[in-house]
Amino acid sequence: MTACRRLASVLAAALALAASAEAGAGWSASSGSQGFCDRSAALSVQAQDRLLRFAAVVRAELASAGDDVALISRSGLDLSRFRIRHSHAAIAWRSETGAWTARQLYYACDEGRPRLYDQGIAGFVMATDDTTHGYVSIVAMPARAATRLRRAALDTPRALRLLSGTYSASAFAFGLRYQNCNQWVVELLAAAWSDAGDRADSRGIAQDWLKGAGYLPQPVRVSHWQLFASIFVPLVHVDDHPEHDRFALGLHISLPGAIETFVRDRFPDSERIEICHDERQIVVHRGWTPASDGCRPMPGDRVIALGV
């Protein structure tokens, strides 16, 4: 079972094909989607210790955010070439016992379809292709928004009604043919916050509400070669994107950054925390400005040494 949290991997693989450079371990044009379903790699003791300590800080920051639900996003592969830091979003929620869980969409390889998946924060953090550097972003919303979001996220039948049967990492943000991980998250926000009631559980109605509410994914800039490479990359499709977007080489894909901006615009008193790590330290950065590249602390950041 490999989550569609591998969005970063499949997008990077499309770029790799176009650039004739290796980006996805074990992938070949003949391997089909299964090439992305067996990407788990053994972690060294040092890497496990680093990621577990990082996850503990993430859980502590979630707990201090002041509510029982938050938007959480993490990095995966290095997508700086696309100017993307966080590739995968989920809804983090706290149980009555105090345990934090990330509810998210994942791609079930055995079944060949998307599913919903509840994952502990340590597993969420460890689902990355770079154990030496990582970023996690938390957005805590005001109580009026958080209460409705928690209710919608944990209403499993309702959440499942927003789940598409067909997955594409590069799904058009306002299309119904496919769905990616982040698209399910933002459509769940629509179901939680609109006044349409159960009708908002329809993906089309949720997307219409998002358009009217000002949700605006920024285009991911691609090249002709990357569009061509998508033909050969499993779980990446561009045929759902409007023709003018493909001609302009700008694909409107739901990504965590746009979702965070939408939450902030709708609820200006929302708060954001970004936590990052390298091999030496963890940095906790508060505010809507991004943490520094390379996880270098800035004035006001909290630094936690990891040791050697």
Summarize the structure in words.
There is one protein chain. The protein is α+β, with helices and mostly antiparallel strands and 308 residues long. The chain has one domain. It has 10 helices and 10 strands. The strands form 2 sheets. An 8-stranded antiparallel beta sheet has the order 4-3-2-1-5-8-9-10, sandwiched between helices. Strand 2 and strand 3 form a beta hairpin. The longest helix has 20 residues, at 45-64. The two termini are 33 Å apart. The model is unreliable at 1-8 and 13-35 (pLDDT under 50).
Would you tell me the structural class of the helices and strands?
Answer: alpha+beta
Strand segment count: 10
Mean pLDDT: 84
What's the shape?
globular
Q: Return the domain count.
A: 1
Rg is 18 Å
Side-by-side strand order of the widest sheet: 4-3-2-1-5-8-9-10
- Helical proportion, percent range: 25-40%
The biggest beta sheet reads: 8 strands, antiparallel
Please give the oligomerization state of what you see.
single chain
Q: What is the tally of helical segments? A: 10
Query: Ranges with pLDDT <50 over ≥5 residues?
Result: 1-8, 13-35
Terminal Cα span: 33 Å
In percent terms, what proportion of residues is strand?
15-25%
Q: How are helices and strands ordered from N to C?
A: HHEEEEHEHHHHEHHEHEEE
